[in-house]
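Objective 1b: paired records.
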Amino acid sequence: MAEKIRILIVDDHSMVRMGMASLLAMEADMEVVAEAEDLAQAVGAFTQSRPDVTLMDVRMPGGSGLDALVRIRAVAPEARVVMLSTFDLEEPILAAYAAGACGYLLKSIRGAELAAAIRRVHAGELCFPPALQRHVAARGRTKPLTPREVEILDLIRRGFSNKEIGQMLGITENTAKFHVKAILAKLEVTDRAEAVAAAFERGLLQVD
């Protein structure tokens, strides 16, 4: 008998984890070996259980699912991680793809579709549903923003000047200005206001 696909579920809502675990328990070839609810637990659970496939919520306490993905792949480049989200916003999808995610699925996915996606990822395939693949293809020629650039973008939307951003981040005003120019280029906009608007549209920033 073939070994079961060992799965780690990461989500900060216990009911969501329970629901996923119950669905996957019905699959004869799958086994949930660990669960986690935040970034630190996710990395620890992965290190301890070394699952075949990790289902990772995009947003969680202590850091994003993308942060957890990057940390996990730093110690296990072969890790197969599927990101889960409520929204199909462009930037998180592209960022997850660039960071090495094997898939990006909406939480509204049906149990049978989730199980099929896990099998595909375990077999070495990528699993970005058609609608999301179009997002990736449409913006695949552009580079995703770095974590530092996203941090600066958040300060821009709060109204801080380049000088103030430099002081807050411990960098020079010229370095801050360089980052801002890079952000405008990557977002394909001409000024700071357009950058903030584009960031909200693409899911880089959320309303507080």
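Objective 1b, second protein:
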Amino acid sequence: MNNTVLKMTKIVICAMMLTLAAGTVFAGTREIKARMKARFPQIENFKNQGVIGENNKGYLEVLKTNADAKKLVGSENKDREAVYRAIARQQKASAELVGKRRAMMIARRAPKGHMLQNAKGKWYKK
């Protein structure tokens, strides 16, 4: 895996977790962070293969039929939803808005070759 991609992802995960920690006690934060970090290499592998992509709502989607990817995406999206809800409570916003903002950040930072969904719902390869 590319060191730049790994560093960027660690920064993004840390930023999400720091946002939660800054003023909000969120039960399970450490557990979620550990699960997300553990899943990261496999997620990146599937992204590099074009099996999964980042949608415009801040969640992963399976783009090519793969049972392992489907299970992984389900677990990751469940944790992302919990993070987005916690951030939304802290910022007095909706979880949907938090997810959409996160999607824009992911799209900006995504490496070439990853599949992304634009605001209109169309998938493209960066």
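The chain has a mean pLDDT of 86. The radius of gyration is 14 Å.
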